Structure formats: C-alpha cells, structure tokens
Amino acid sequence: MNASMTGLITLAVLIIIFICYGISIYNHLVNLKNNVARAWANIDVLLKQRHDEIPKLVETCKQYMSYEQSTFDRIMQARSGVYQASHDGNVKAVGAAESELRSGLGQLFALAEAYPELHANDSFANLQQRISTLESSISDRREFYNDSVNLLNTRIEQFPHVLIARRFGFKSAEMLSFSKEQTSDVDLKSLFN
To answer: For residues 97 and 85, is the Cβ–Cβ distance under 8 A?
Structure first.
C-alpha cells in the first residue's frame, strides 16, 4: 500500500466519522424538539381537562352565590382565553390567560368560604379537589416543559450543534411562564372588602 492510498483511506474514515457525528447531533436535536412537543401535549391535555371542569364548578357555585356574577364572568373569559391560546399553540398567551384564570379561581375559592352551604356541597368539594389536583399537575408539567425548552434552546446555541441546528432550521422554543401576580399568594382580605 502506498502513501497516497493510506491518505485516501484516512480521509474517507475521517469523513465517515464526521458524517456520523453530524447525524448523531441531528438526532439529538430532533429528540429534544420532540421532548418539547410531548411536554406541551401533556400540558394541553391537562388544560383541556380543567377546561371541562370549570363550567361545572361555576354552575355549582351559581346555585349558591347569586351575587358573584362578575367573578363567574371573569373565570369563563379567562377559560376561553386559555383554550384559544392553547389551541393556537401560543405559549406566551397561554401564560397570560393562565394567570388570569388562576387568579379568578383563587378568588372564587376564597369567596366560597363565605357560603357555608356551598362549601358543604359534595359536588363543589369534588370539583374543587379535581381542579386543585389538575392545577398541581399543570405546575408539574410546566416545570418539565420548561426544562425541555431550556435543554433544546441551550443545545441549539452550543457549538457544534448550532451548525446543524441552523442548517436544518431548528428554532428555539418559548418558556411557559405566569405573571408575578399569579405566583404570589392570594390576598384574602382584599377579596372580602
């Protein structure tokens, strides 16, 4: 074997290694992108489940709380906003609508304290528990979604992944965040003044 043949074989091996490494990076980016999509789908399922429970809760409360129509309207408008933003895949709008909805639900649950017969109602208690469980699950899924987004966004900015990401059009994803008011404690005194 002569030197030129050895050089060609070495070059061919290096090209094959380079191509395999590029394929590995591409597959890793696809996996991260699909993890973000899966995490969003998990949130979407929980949002839809809660979306179906809220009208039942509002209807149950209406039977006892005839003077709280503005609270009911606020919750139903926020519910529609979450559904529309989720349907459109607009993460930023979901965060804003979620903030409004959670605030409205917090206000509704706080107002329910003033209605002992409502609080004793089994249907209300079950719906309140179901929605609280869904809220907790949404928070957990949001954390997983944001972790997945962070991994994807970090990876597509790192070298050499950035070369493959740009070449194949991988885009950064948006974190799901809620407003500062939504993450703070509800001021119960202000709800009863």
So the answer is: yes
